[in-house]
TrEMBL record:
The keyword Membrane applies. Coiled coil: none annotated. This is Hydrolase. GO terms for molecular function: hydrolase activity; metal ion binding.
Length: 278
């Protein structure tokens, strides 16, 4: 068992909280799902191109607070009118071809080790729950906590963010999840690649920097946090069969927004821009 996943003391529940993009996945979930979204008609080829280009800085150097907040603001402006049902169908249909090949083998090993140790496994992401929950289920997590957006009675996103999961909001959500499940954060692990997740990492007893950006790598060295560099994306089916989880359990964080914040919001920004340039 990896040292980072040592069992918690008897009588105390523990959990492992994983960021998604560039921590469990070798890429942005939106980057991976962009082509299926275009093929389904959710976005145009032009929007896809703009969105992928916009994500390059994130993939190379990470998403800073200013960039993420700006993308969140654009997300609220352009998400109204998109069908939640259609988005969920696209994500579910694309898991095998777009997501599975991008999952880090090292992340699966850690998830499996935590589960063997009796720990809850939770994916915490700034992306929206409709995108995160199916991926969390795929890799064997117990539940997902993610950005939430309002859905109207007609099943369309209204454009109103009911709760974001950016930066310090993640640590609030982590503490809420821990309290709801009888978990002690001091006995928990957290994994992330981004300095923006410093509050979440600092909130647990066992923070781990995974493929860290420059600032997080420096901080991890200063604070003597373990650093893990993942490098082996692998298809899941030959080596890992996730346990069956109900839709209700997977969507525990509730209904959320339209596309991812941080990575996913990039194509929404492009969509907004293409409306004005058309």
């Amino acid at each position: 068992m990896p040292a980072a996943a040592a069992p918690a003391p008897t009588g105390h529940r523990a959990a492992a909280y994983f960021d998604l993009d560039k921590t469990i996945l070798a890429t942005s979930s939106t980057w991976a799902l962009g082509t299926p979204m275009r093929r389904s008609g959710l976005i145009s080829s032009r929007t896809l191109a703009y969105g992928l280009i916009a994500q390059i800085p994130y993939l190379l150097v990470g998403a800073g607070a200013r960039r993420s907040n700006s993308l969140m603001e654009h997300l609220a402006l352009v998400s109204a009118g998109i069908s939640r049902h259609d988005l969920m169908e696209v994500v579910e249909g694309a898991l095998a071809t777009a997501i599975e090949p991008a999952v880090y083998a090292e992340a699966l090993d850690l998830i499996e080790a935590h589960r063997r140790a009796g720990h809850d496994v939770v994916v915490v992401s700034a992306s929206i729950i409709e995108m995160v929950a199916p991926i969390a289920r795929l890799v064997g997590a117990d539940r997902a906590v993610a950005t939430r957006m309002e859905v109207g009675e007609d099943g369309l996103f209204t454009g109103r963010i009911t709760r974001s999961m950016l930066h310090s909001e993640k640590v609030v959500a982590l503490r809420e999840d821990a309290a709801a499940h009888g978990i002690d954060p001091a006995r928990c692990w957290a994994y992330s690649d981004s300095i923006s997740d410093e509050p979440m990492l600092s909130a647990v007893g066992h923070p781990v920097a995974v493929n860290p950006d420059r600032d997080l790598r420096r901080m991890a060295q200063e604070r003597d946090w373990p650093v893990r560099d993942f490098a082996r994306p692998v298809r899941l089916r030959p080596r890992w069969k996730p346990p069956h989880l109900s839709t209700r359990a997977s969507l525990i964080a509730g209904a959320a927004g339209v596309l991812a914040v941080g990575g996913t919001a990039a194509w929404l920004v492009a969509r907004h821009g293409s409306r004005h340039s058309a």
